[in-house]
Automatic annotation (TrEMBL), chains A, B, C, D, E, F:
<dbReference type="InterPro" id="IPR004370">
    <property type="entry name" value="4-OT-like_dom"/>
</dbReference>
<dbReference type="InterPro" id="IPR014347">
    <property type="entry name" value="Tautomerase/MIF_sf"/>
</dbReference>
<comment type="similarity">
    <text>Belongs to the 4-oxalocrotonate tautomerase family.</text>
</comment>
<feature type="domain" description="4-oxalocrotonate tautomerase-like">
    <location>
        <begin position="2"/>
        <end position="65"/>
    </location>
</feature>
<keyword id="KW-0413">Isomerase</keyword>
<protein>
    <submittedName>
        <fullName>4-oxalocrotonate tautomerase family protein</fullName>
    </submittedName>
</protein>
<dbReference type="Pfam" id="PF01361">
    <property type="entry name" value="Tautomerase"/>
</dbReference>
Length: 85, 85, 85, 85, 85, 85
């Protein structure tokens, strides 16, 4: 009876993509269900997986919408001579 | 103060529909609120209901996205001579 | 594949009880599953129901923990001569 | 490690808007993160905020979809001579 | 920024246990975080995992609390001569 | 109709405490409800707040249960001569 609810931001994992692909979602579903089987011995048929995609401006970290938070992180990295990106 | 959160797949309940209708959603809201009144004596005004619709490819069962899981179920049924559909 | 998540406060529905009983929980599970069958034609076996019980001090309404909110509501009612309780 | 999940109806907070603006969402994210810092001393970087927007017909209160519930509330107010709107 | 919320029933995965062990929980956390890294390239430090344990009587499947549902499943299996357990 | 769901780890915010106090929870409820009023003009009476407390071993960050994650963070800080704690 496990339920795995995965919240991700709606964005692509590479150039030319703006959201997780159907293949990536299938891999998340397969991997999460397998994890419950491996660790707690739950049959695959007993696990539900829900993937919720959230717009970037609806997700906050560090008190900021994610796009702003990332800009700030990037700035910090560039300012630090030992950790360029 | 109950909160009832109902997660469903975004698909029609009959031909020519591709999502739950406004009437169906209203029936879910009414029924869920009435249930809390009947069982726990919670006034209708004290219950919130949220219906979350999830794309079929974002919902997994049996380690597979729902459309694949259903195909597999259908195959099993057809292979079993005593349980045709 | 529906998931019905019901959040309730941990308190009894009558004297001498301090939480929902097993019978009340079973009635919520039965009723919620039946609702999805009646409205969206979802088989009982395809619906998961989760009941989450939350301590009264962890639930807020009107900007107050529920016990305070109820006291305030009761005061308002008693102050209004046309709506005694 | 706090997670703040805010569910709101998808509607504008004023004329000419049909959803929360990016500025309003940023204010929710900032305020919620600051709240956890002020009350529980959680660093901003340790808090995630997710804003989920729900269509009006998917949100129920008083056993009704929100638009119907509001109409009913408005009617009650108009019927009461001491509390016109 | 992914959030993985895993809901499981509070029960042991073997004799003499009545809940998931700390080791099993650590394995779920590690596996879920690794999955997001493998599939969507999300750094481990950007993923939160929450494990929610639900009492058996608070979880429903097939319109029944899980303990009843399992008894029913077991009965069905025993009645079928080709699929004894 | 906003719902604010706050997930926190069950631990004290200072010495001699092992969980958030009733006062801290009341402050979270008040602050979250006020935030929705300030930003989206939602009346206090229209907002529900739920505080969910999660055991430390049930919360993961960086692929590890929170207690392990914190130990690792502390080690990194101590190893770095420019960022002692």
């Amino acid at each position: 009876m496990p339920i795995v609810h995965i919240t991700i931001t709606r964005e692509g994992s590479g150039p030319g993509r703006n959201a997780a692909t159907a293949e990536e979602k299938a891999a998340l579903i397969k991997g999460a269900s397998q994890l419950l089987l491996d660790v707690l011995n739950k049959p695959l048929d007993a696990t539900f997986v829900v993937i919720e995609e959230v717009e970037l401006e609806n997700f906050g970290w560090g008190g900021l919408p994610v796009p702003e938070f990332r800009k700030q992180l990037a700035k910090k990295s560039h300012g630090a001579p030992t950790a360029p990106e």
